[in-house]
Design the sequence.
Protein backbone atom coordinates (compact mmCIF):
# COMPACT_ATOMS: atom_id res chain seq x y z
CA UNK A 1 0.00 0.00 0.00
CA UNK A 2 1.37 3.39 -0.98
CA UNK A 3 2.22 5.86 1.79
CA UNK A 4 0.11 8.98 1.28
CA UNK A 5 2.46 11.21 3.26
CA UNK A 6 5.90 11.01 4.81
CA UNK A 7 7.10 13.56 7.33
CA UNK A 8 10.85 14.02 6.94
CA UNK A 9 13.35 15.94 9.03
CA UNK A 10 16.53 16.61 7.07
CA UNK A 11 19.92 17.08 8.78
CA UNK A 12 22.92 18.30 6.80
CA UNK A 13 25.40 21.14 6.59
CA UNK A 14 27.79 21.48 3.60
CA UNK A 15 27.21 21.91 -0.13
CA UNK A 16 27.49 18.12 -0.54
CA UNK A 17 24.14 17.71 1.24
CA UNK A 18 22.11 20.25 -0.75
CA UNK A 19 21.18 17.91 -3.67
CA UNK A 20 19.89 15.41 -1.10
CA UNK A 21 17.70 18.08 0.48
CA UNK A 22 16.35 18.89 -2.97
CA UNK A 23 15.72 15.16 -3.57
CA UNK A 24 13.66 15.02 -0.38
CA UNK A 25 11.57 17.99 -1.50
CA UNK A 26 11.09 16.57 -5.01
CA UNK A 27 10.05 13.14 -3.70
CA UNK A 28 6.65 14.27 -2.50
CA UNK A 29 7.63 13.81 1.13
CA UNK A 30 6.88 16.68 3.51
CA UNK A 31 10.15 18.17 4.77
CA UNK A 32 8.94 19.57 8.09
CA UNK A 33 12.30 20.87 9.36
CA UNK A 34 15.97 21.12 8.48
CA UNK A 35 18.70 20.67 11.08
CA UNK A 36 22.13 22.13 10.35
CA UNK A 37 25.26 23.22 12.20
CA UNK A 38 25.19 26.62 13.96
CA UNK A 39 26.45 29.55 11.90
CA UNK A 40 30.26 29.71 11.97
CA UNK A 41 32.79 32.51 11.33
CA UNK A 42 33.98 32.44 7.71
CA UNK A 43 36.00 34.52 5.26
CA UNK A 44 38.60 37.15 5.96
CA UNK A 45 36.19 39.19 8.05
CA UNK A 46 35.30 36.13 10.14
CA UNK A 47 31.63 37.07 10.01
CA UNK A 48 29.06 34.46 10.95
CA UNK A 49 27.96 32.57 7.85
CA UNK A 50 25.01 30.24 7.29
CA UNK A 51 25.68 26.74 5.98
CA UNK A 52 24.73 25.92 2.37
CA UNK A 53 21.97 23.66 3.67
CA UNK A 54 20.55 26.45 5.85
CA UNK A 55 20.52 28.81 2.89
CA UNK A 56 18.71 26.24 0.75
CA UNK A 57 16.18 25.53 3.51
CA UNK A 58 15.40 29.21 4.10
CA UNK A 59 15.00 29.77 0.36
CA UNK A 60 12.44 26.95 0.34
CA UNK A 61 10.61 28.28 3.40
CA UNK A 62 11.49 25.32 5.62
CA UNK A 63 11.92 25.69 9.39
CA UNK A 64 15.60 25.58 10.42
CA UNK A 65 16.98 24.25 13.71
CA UNK A 66 20.65 24.68 14.77
CA UNK A 67 21.31 23.00 18.13
CA UNK A 68 24.91 22.67 19.29
CA UNK A 69 24.11 19.05 20.21
CA UNK A 70 21.24 16.81 21.26
CA UNK A 71 22.46 16.34 24.82
CA UNK A 72 19.71 18.56 26.23
CA UNK A 73 16.31 16.94 26.65
CA UNK A 74 14.71 20.14 25.34
CA UNK A 75 16.50 19.75 21.97
CA UNK A 76 15.39 16.13 21.66
CA UNK A 77 11.87 17.14 22.63
CA UNK A 78 11.84 19.82 19.93
CA UNK A 79 12.82 17.22 17.33
CA UNK A 80 10.13 14.83 18.58
CA UNK A 81 7.54 17.62 18.33
CA UNK A 82 7.96 17.62 14.56
CA UNK A 83 6.63 14.03 14.65
CA UNK A 84 8.98 12.83 11.88
CA UNK A 85 8.40 9.54 10.15
CA UNK A 86 12.02 9.61 8.96
CA UNK A 87 15.18 11.61 9.57
CA UNK A 88 17.61 11.90 6.66
CA UNK A 89 21.21 12.72 7.64
CA UNK A 90 23.81 13.87 5.10
CA UNK A 91 27.18 15.24 6.29
CA UNK A 92 25.47 16.84 9.28
CA UNK A 93 28.56 17.07 11.48
CA UNK A 94 27.01 15.74 14.69
CA UNK A 95 26.94 12.16 15.96
CA UNK A 96 23.34 11.32 16.81
CA UNK A 97 22.80 9.55 20.15
CA UNK A 98 20.54 6.52 20.45
CA UNK A 99 17.73 8.62 21.91
CA UNK A 100 17.66 10.70 18.73
CA UNK A 101 17.88 7.69 16.40
CA UNK A 102 14.80 6.28 18.11
CA UNK A 103 12.59 9.35 17.59
CA UNK A 104 11.49 8.93 13.93
CA UNK A 105 9.02 6.13 13.27
CA UNK A 106 11.21 4.72 10.46
CA UNK A 107 14.49 5.61 12.14
CA UNK A 108 17.27 7.62 10.52
CA UNK A 109 18.86 7.25 7.09
CA UNK A 110 22.36 8.41 6.25
CA UNK A 111 23.84 9.12 2.82
CA UNK A 112 27.54 8.24 3.05
CA UNK A 113 30.13 8.90 0.32
CA UNK A 114 31.83 5.50 0.14
CA UNK A 115 31.18 1.83 -0.50
CA UNK A 116 30.85 0.60 3.05
CA UNK A 117 32.49 -0.85 5.04
CA UNK A 118 35.42 0.81 3.25
CA UNK A 119 36.02 4.38 4.40
CA UNK A 120 33.80 4.86 7.37
CA UNK A 121 34.34 8.28 8.89
CA UNK A 122 34.82 11.93 8.05
CA UNK A 123 36.81 12.12 4.79
CA UNK A 124 35.93 9.11 2.61
CA UNK A 125 36.26 10.95 -0.72
CA UNK A 126 39.85 12.09 -0.23
CA UNK A 127 40.95 8.87 1.47
CA UNK A 128 39.75 6.81 -1.47
CA UNK A 129 41.86 8.86 -3.90
CA UNK A 130 44.89 8.80 -1.59
CA UNK A 131 44.70 5.01 -1.35
CA UNK A 132 44.56 4.59 -5.11
CA UNK A 133 41.08 3.05 -5.07
CA UNK A 134 39.64 2.42 -8.53
CA UNK A 135 36.00 2.69 -7.44
CA UNK A 136 33.88 4.74 -5.09
CA UNK A 137 30.20 5.37 -4.60
CA UNK A 138 27.50 6.23 -2.10
CA UNK A 139 25.53 4.11 0.34
CA UNK A 140 22.11 4.94 1.74
CA UNK A 141 22.37 3.41 5.19
CA UNK A 142 19.98 2.76 8.07
CA UNK A 143 21.72 4.48 10.97
CA UNK A 144 22.65 2.79 14.21
CA UNK A 145 24.80 3.84 17.17
CA UNK A 146 28.16 2.84 15.63
CA UNK A 147 30.14 5.10 13.27
CA UNK A 148 28.84 4.30 9.76
CA UNK A 149 28.17 0.70 10.75
CA UNK A 150 24.50 0.45 9.82
CA UNK A 151 23.04 -1.84 7.14
CA UNK A 152 22.91 -0.58 3.54
CA UNK A 153 19.56 0.10 1.85
CA UNK A 154 20.62 1.45 -1.57
CA UNK A 155 24.05 1.68 -3.23
CA UNK A 156 25.41 3.58 -6.23
CA UNK A 157 28.89 2.90 -7.66
CA UNK A 158 31.20 4.99 -9.84
CA UNK A 159 34.79 4.58 -11.10
CA UNK A 160 37.56 6.82 -9.81
CA UNK A 161 39.23 8.15 -12.95
CA UNK A 162 42.96 8.68 -13.48
CA UNK A 163 42.55 12.46 -13.24
CA UNK A 164 40.02 12.46 -10.38
CA UNK A 165 40.32 15.22 -7.80
CA UNK A 166 38.71 15.53 -4.42
CA UNK A 167 36.48 18.22 -5.90
CA UNK A 168 35.35 16.30 -8.97
CA UNK A 169 34.58 13.13 -7.02
CA UNK A 170 32.78 15.18 -4.36
CA UNK A 171 30.48 16.71 -6.95
CA UNK A 172 29.70 13.39 -8.62
CA UNK A 173 29.03 11.58 -5.35
CA UNK A 174 26.85 14.44 -4.15
CA UNK A 175 24.52 13.85 -7.08
CA UNK A 176 24.75 10.05 -6.79
CA UNK A 177 23.77 10.38 -3.15
CA UNK A 178 20.71 12.38 -4.12
CA UNK A 179 19.81 9.69 -6.67
CA UNK A 180 20.16 6.89 -4.11
CA UNK A 181 18.09 8.82 -1.57
CA UNK A 182 15.40 9.56 -4.15
CA UNK A 183 15.13 5.85 -4.93
CA UNK A 184 14.83 4.95 -1.26
CA UNK A 185 12.12 7.55 -0.66
CA UNK A 186 10.23 6.53 -3.80
CA UNK A 187 10.19 2.88 -2.80
CA UNK A 188 9.10 3.55 0.78
CA UNK A 189 6.36 5.92 -0.36
CA UNK A 190 5.19 3.20 -2.76
CA UNK A 191 4.64 0.97 0.25
CA UNK A 192 7.79 -1.15 -0.07
CA UNK A 193 9.76 -2.30 2.95
CA UNK A 194 13.42 -1.88 2.05
CA UNK A 195 15.64 -4.89 2.72
CA UNK A 196 18.90 -3.78 4.30
CA UNK A 197 22.23 -5.48 3.61
CA UNK A 198 24.43 -5.98 6.67
CA UNK A 199 27.94 -4.62 6.17
CA UNK A 200 30.76 -7.14 5.84
CA UNK A 201 33.12 -7.62 8.76
CA UNK A 202 36.13 -7.57 6.44
CA UNK A 203 37.52 -4.58 4.54
CA UNK A 204 36.78 -1.94 7.16
CA UNK A 205 38.82 1.25 6.74
CA UNK A 206 38.52 4.55 8.61
CA UNK A 207 38.63 7.85 6.75
CA UNK A 208 40.10 10.15 9.37
CA UNK A 209 39.41 13.88 9.16
CA UNK A 210 41.80 15.80 6.91
CA UNK A 211 44.61 17.75 8.55
CA UNK A 212 46.29 20.61 6.72
CA UNK A 213 49.69 19.26 7.80
CA UNK A 214 49.04 16.17 5.64
CA UNK A 215 49.24 18.28 2.49
CA UNK A 216 53.03 18.79 2.65
CA UNK A 217 54.73 16.97 -0.21
CA UNK A 218 57.69 14.82 0.84
CA UNK A 219 59.69 14.19 -2.33
CA UNK A 220 61.44 11.19 -0.79
CA UNK A 221 58.12 9.39 -1.31
CA UNK A 222 57.13 7.69 -4.60
CA UNK A 223 55.83 10.08 -7.24
CA UNK A 224 52.56 8.18 -7.62
CA UNK A 225 51.76 8.76 -3.94
CA UNK A 226 52.43 12.48 -4.31
CA UNK A 227 50.26 12.66 -7.43
CA UNK A 228 47.38 11.15 -5.45
CA UNK A 229 47.94 13.73 -2.71
CA UNK A 230 47.75 16.59 -5.21
CA UNK A 231 44.50 15.24 -6.65
CA UNK A 232 42.92 14.31 -3.30
CA UNK A 233 43.67 17.68 -1.67
CA UNK A 234 42.16 19.73 -4.50
CA UNK A 235 40.27 21.94 -3.54
CA UNK A 236 41.25 21.63 0.15
CA UNK A 237 43.71 21.76 1.84
CA UNK A 238 45.79 21.89 -1.40
CA UNK A 239 49.16 20.12 -1.61
CA UNK A 240 52.27 22.23 -1.11
CA UNK A 241 55.99 21.66 -1.41
CA UNK A 242 59.37 23.34 -1.46
CA UNK A 243 60.42 23.79 -5.08
CA UNK A 244 63.90 25.23 -5.75
CA UNK A 245 63.86 27.24 -2.54
CA UNK A 246 60.26 28.45 -2.79
CA UNK A 247 57.14 27.13 -1.08
CA UNK A 248 54.44 26.50 -3.68
CA UNK A 249 50.90 25.23 -3.58
CA UNK A 250 50.59 22.46 -6.16
CA UNK A 251 47.22 22.27 -7.90
CA UNK A 252 47.96 19.77 -10.66
CA UNK A 253 50.71 17.21 -11.17
CA UNK A 254 51.30 13.72 -12.50
CA UNK A 255 53.83 10.98 -11.92
CA UNK A 256 56.38 10.49 -14.72
CA UNK A 257 59.62 8.60 -15.21
CA UNK A 258 62.52 9.91 -13.12
CA UNK A 259 66.29 9.83 -13.36
CA UNK A 260 68.12 7.06 -11.46
CA UNK A 261 70.15 8.44 -8.57
CA UNK A 262 68.63 11.94 -8.71
CA UNK A 263 68.35 13.74 -5.39
CA UNK A 264 64.69 13.81 -4.23
CA UNK A 265 63.37 17.35 -4.48
CA UNK A 266 65.77 18.41 -7.25
CA UNK A 267 64.50 19.89 -10.52
CA UNK A 268 65.05 17.43 -13.36
CA UNK A 269 63.35 19.35 -16.16
CA UNK A 270 61.54 22.66 -16.57
CA UNK A 271 59.54 23.20 -19.76
CA UNK A 272 56.17 24.59 -20.79
CA UNK A 273 54.77 21.10 -20.26
CA UNK A 274 55.70 21.10 -16.58
CA UNK A 275 58.41 21.06 -13.93
CA UNK A 276 59.76 17.60 -13.13
CA UNK A 277 60.79 17.09 -9.49
CA UNK A 278 62.82 14.01 -8.53
CA UNK A 279 61.09 11.72 -6.04
CA UNK A 280 62.01 8.61 -4.10
CA UNK A 281 60.58 6.67 -7.05
CA UNK A 282 60.01 8.41 -10.38
CA UNK A 283 59.36 12.12 -10.72
CA UNK A 284 56.43 14.46 -10.18
CA UNK A 285 55.60 16.79 -13.07
CA UNK A 286 54.01 19.98 -11.76
CA UNK A 287 51.61 21.54 -14.25
CA UNK A 288 49.70 24.09 -12.14
CA UNK A 289 51.09 25.90 -9.10
CA UNK A 290 50.45 28.93 -6.89
CA UNK A 291 53.02 31.25 -5.36
CA UNK A 292 52.49 32.86 -1.94
CA UNK A 293 49.95 35.65 -2.33
CA UNK A 294 49.38 34.78 -5.99
CA UNK A 295 46.84 32.91 -8.04
CA UNK A 296 46.89 29.49 -9.66
CA UNK A 297 49.05 29.54 -12.80
CA UNK A 298 50.36 27.02 -15.32
CA UNK A 299 53.96 25.82 -15.40
CA UNK A 300 54.79 28.03 -18.39
CA UNK A 301 53.72 31.20 -16.58
CA UNK A 302 55.64 30.19 -13.47
CA UNK A 303 58.81 29.60 -15.49
CA UNK A 304 58.46 33.04 -17.06
CA UNK A 305 58.87 34.41 -13.53
CA UNK A 306 61.73 32.03 -12.70
CA UNK A 307 63.73 31.48 -15.92
CA UNK A 308 66.72 30.29 -13.89
CA UNK A 309 64.93 26.98 -13.31
CA UNK A 310 65.21 26.15 -17.01
CA UNK A 311 68.97 26.63 -16.83
CA UNK A 312 69.30 24.70 -13.57
CA UNK A 313 67.52 21.72 -15.07
CA UNK A 314 69.41 21.71 -18.36
Sequence:
Amino acid sequence: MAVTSLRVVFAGTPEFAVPCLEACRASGAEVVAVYTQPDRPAGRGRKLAASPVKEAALAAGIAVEQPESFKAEADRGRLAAYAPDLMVVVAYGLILPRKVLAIPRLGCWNVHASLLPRWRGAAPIQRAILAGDHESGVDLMQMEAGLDTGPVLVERRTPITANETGGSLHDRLSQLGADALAEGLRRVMAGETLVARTQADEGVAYAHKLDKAEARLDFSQPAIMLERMVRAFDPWPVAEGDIAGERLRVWAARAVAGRPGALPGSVLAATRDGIDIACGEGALRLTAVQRAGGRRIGAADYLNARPELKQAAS
